[in-house]
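job 3f2a | input accepted
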Amino acid sequence: MKKIFTFLIAAVMLVLAAVALYLCEDYGTYNLVYIFCFVFIAAYGICAPSTIASKVAQVLIYGIILAAQILFNVLVIRSAASGPAYDLCRFLGVLAASVPFLARISFFYQSGTSWSFPSAEEPSVLSYGQLLCDKDEIIRKAERLKAAGSVLSRVELTEILYQLPRHSSFSYINHGTLTEEYFQRAMQTLDHEYIYLVVTSSKSLPSDVIGLFTKKEYNHVSLAFDEQLDTIISYNGGQRAVPPGLNTELLAALTQRDGSAILVYRLPAAAEQKRSLIEKVRKINAEGSAYNLLGLVFKGSVKPNIMFCSQFVYTMLESAGLAYFDKKAAQVAPADFIEMDYGRKLEFVRRIALVGEA
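job 3f2a | predicted structure (358 res):
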């Protein structure tokens, strides 16, 4: 009961803060909300039962997030001109208020613990001895924070801000990018009773950002109907050439960065199952699609054809009766296709290591 009550308080607080921020055009109010959220989440992190290392790491991370929020407010929101660009900046400023809470869920939340305020009987004393004992965990948290800072550098933040307006998590923006020639090639593979799962470590910006949440190296998965991977498709950002959503892919594009690697697996599929998959892809292509950017965080979709890569692949497998593990599609991560293959349904085909890797 305490867990639900605490969650409701935090949710109400965030909703009210979001409404107040968006309606208020005074950029100073954003800073006040950011500071209030920092005080709330830092106090909770200090008081909640956890290791000393976790408490120290949380305060440091929340402090850095607060500094980044204020800088974003001053350099972006305050300097934005009126019009759609200003509205977008204000909306991003509202979303920024939730960053420390998302950081707690991503870095510090333990599913086995109850999310409730600690009682007075639960001691939380910081001792030098405990600090020394927990130094390895502090170092580990600091390394993850450093990695997050590297991903969210100034240059890559600029790229993120450029990419955001191209996406939509509420309507279909990608229509008919797969050609009839593609479907003819896919149909020609029906006699070859396998489909192929391609799991990629692309070292790209989207992959690095997703890795902050999944904590995995391989953060993209694709589907193909032929062994040569000429029919490879997935949900992606479109590489600026086409809208984000359901698109064909090229191995060269997936692995253009140094250190990129691909793992190729095959899964037995009868001809009718492959035909069902191809027809399902054809239907999505005709109806329209969009990349489920918000779904990466909130684990849900507003419309059926708004998905991210692993959500799409799992949905396809499930629709054809080929899913070999049980999980909600919106909660599936790319690495799950390998790690949750307990029945050993997949057959490893090959690993492709690209430039920059020995």
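job 3f2a | The longest strand covers residues 194-201.
job 3f2a | closed
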